Amino acid sequence: MADPRGFLTTPRQEWPRRPVEERVGDWDEVYVPGGLLPIIGEQADRCMDCGVPFCHEACPLGNLIPEWNDLVSREDWRAAAERLHATNNFPEFTGRLCPAPCEAGCVLAINQPAVTIKNVECAIADRAWEEGFAAPAPPDRLSGRTVAVIGSGPAGLAAAQQLTRAGHAVAVYERDDRIGGLMRYGIPEFKMEKRHLERRVEQMRAEGTRFRTSTTVGQDVDAAELRGRYDAVVIATGATAWRELPVPGRELTGIHQAMEYLPLANRVREGDLERSQLSAEGRHVVIVGGGDTGADCLGTAVRERAASVTQLDIYRRPGSERDEENEPWPTYPKLYRLSAAHEEAGALRTAPAAEADARLFAASTLRFEGDADGRVRGLRLVEVDAERRPVPGTERTLPADLVLLALGFSGPDQGDGIIAQLGLELEPRGTIARGPDFATNVPGVFAAGDAARGQSLIVWAIAEGRAVAAAVDRCLTGGTSGLPAPIGPYDRPMTV
């Protein structure tokens, strides 16, 4: 603990964002380049090095947060990077994309603003790359065993890297033309520039991991045949079966799933397209769904110069303070949070129907309205109470010629054939069933990430990847594994 009084003398200060007018004119990350280093040492000093650090428990990776906070405050970046990478394969991803449940579990957060754990993590990760502390770590010797990992999202990549470093020959199969899963085509560039992803992929290639892109297992390669070619298979395909909105007018042209819209915008940034065929430019956009994916659509539509953008959230607007009775510390509370996209939409007044930002809370879609050509032109909504019952007299229509559905995902997509070809058992909710060792009902086949857990956070996906790697390693070696297993398949976030 470098400064025993840091939490008393230093206020919380977060990574500053670039001015709204500047950042909506490009697709670069929203933060001020280099804006962390001048403040991060004092922010790390705010860590109290608690005797029982609940930030460990709140993060499924078990990140050694007080240790690397202390090292950052002492400017020992190499040691900080070592402690950070000891529990997290991709801290530059989580430092940008994770909603930071660790900060909700920070002991300081009981009665003060939490330590900026996420910002400290990101600063360490970026400094590690700048200083050469993230060199490839190939295995000393090979085991002679082979593993196929299906899916290259955070769970698949974490599993692949751990197993490669343990000496196994690992091949990652990805149906898209580039590695990264939703991090590649679902996460907008302004949240995480793809150079961070490319850097890790190159590191993994240097360590020995092989990648097979544009290969849909279940179609291009039979899943049962693949199982016969490898000693073990890890299914980490994610939860890509999107939820629908079965209301009148859903068949109208101009209504799309968020994951139809976002990949096209990302492909424009990759240089594959000159313009997205679903571009929001000049259109009245309504986003149905109040989560992070909806916010990603919002920020994208703003940059595409939409005529207006409104986001609907069926839940009532949460408060700005923790509800100590229903959401006591150290659980992750539902709070009114202003993401970069919401800040932009509020400053630019993209949603005339909304008050502070682009969101309409407690709003439920009744139907879509279209024109004679079958194109959507409006969305009819109604305000709902806490039990989601319509409030009489609150119906109204929003102009809409592009509607984006961001309602989450129900489980893995069964259309690719993997589940049927392998004969995998499913849970009632549609996820892949597995035992306490992450193994499915098919010998040698394991499941990790959202495909088995259900839709979750990036930290849980990475933790799943690390844990399934340990399980596969035990299976292949016939004994104990030296790989860490931060969670079990039945672990869940802290709740009341």
Fold and architecture overview:
InterPro entries: 4Fe4S_Fe-S-bd, DPD_II, FAD/NAD-bd_sf, FAD/NAD-binding_dom, Glut_synth_ssu1, Glutamate_Synthase, Helical_ferredxn. This is Glutamate synthase subunit beta. Pathway: Amino-acid biosynthesis. It holds the Pfam family Pyr_redox_2. The chain has about 500 residues and is of the alpha/beta class. It is about 35% helix and about 15% strand. The strands form four sheets. It has a five-stranded parallel beta sheet with strand order 3-2-1-4-15, with helices on both faces. It has a five-stranded parallel beta sheet with strand order 6-13-7-8-9. A three-stranded antiparallel beta sheet has the order 10-11-12, with no helix packed on it. The relative contact order is 0.13.
Question: How do the strands and helices of this protein lay out in sequence?
Answer:
Layout: H1 6-9, H2 20-23, H3 37-45, H4 54-58, H5 65-73, H6 77-85, H7 91-97, H8 101-104, H9 117-131, E1 146-150, H10 154-165, E2 169-173, H11 182-185, H12 194-207, E3 210-212, H13 223-229, E4 232-235, E5 241-242, E6 255-257, H14 258-270, E7 284-288, H15 292-303, E8 308-313, H16 340-348, E9 359-361, E10 363-370, E11 376-383, E12 396-399, E13 402-405, E14 409-411, H17 418-422, E15 445-447, H18 450-453, H19 458-477
Parallel strand pairs: 1-2, 1-4, 2-3, 4-15, 6-13, 7-8, 7-13, 8-9
Antiparallel strand pairs: 5-14, 10-11, 11-12
Helix pairs in contact: 3-5, 3-9, 5-6, 5-9, 6-9, 7-9, 10-19, 14-15, 15-16
